[in-house]
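As the next step, I wrote out a protein sequence along with its fold in token form, included below for the reader:
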Amino acid sequence: MPKCCLMLPKLTAPDPKQLAEELIAAAGLCQPVPPFSLRYESFTATKAAAVRQAWLDLKAASGCRAAGKKIGKISFGWNGHTQVLRPGWGHILDSTLLVDGTALPCSHLIQPSVEAEFALLLNRDLAGPGITAAHALAAIEGVCAAFEIVDSRFQPKALTPEDAIADNSSHAYAVIGPHLGSPRAIDLAEVGVNLEINDQVRGQGTGAAIYGNPVHALAALANFHPLRAGEIILTGSVAGAFPIKSGDRLRATFRRLGAVNLTIE
């Protein structure tokens, strides 16, 4: 960990908009900044969520549109005698939504990694409490093979859950495959995935790696944050994350869902 980060005096966090502007500038210049948790006292989840919302508002003002959500790490807690799942999540924008076969300039990235994920297209609103896997499954119009490119705007990378919230769960881009499958005709838990980088298999997994079934992750998010018809939801990693660099050719093959491809220029 850089000594300069450890020696920074902790101050009172400024306005969320100011911190959101700092993250947007860091992404635009590809120059990471020290994590907020190292720099500011009492940087709570509430403050971090305000930064994420300010980031979304600034992006909307610049012409971007919210297109969906990415699911990050899900933590487990208790509310009385009831277990509660608390998923990390971030916004997906139309400007970060890429089609299969895209060539993505490495100059747009800071310290990127790739994950193979399922992308779920919702055909109805889904909002808790009380959302079950059956409710979640009924709300899915279709499922695609997908990549998520994760790229923290912090250096060192997000140290705390609060840093991750403020940094939109390190989301950079979503790449959606061309084939839309029915989640009712396919058991997503049994779908096998191979992730290749430059024709070498780097990771393998099945949908069961995502909390037993990707639908469970969707239900957990809907109970934590309302979702809307038309949104695209990335479910979390089946294989990865693996660091990527300029010149890399990425391909993930999903049984019964086809493949998704991306080139890093």
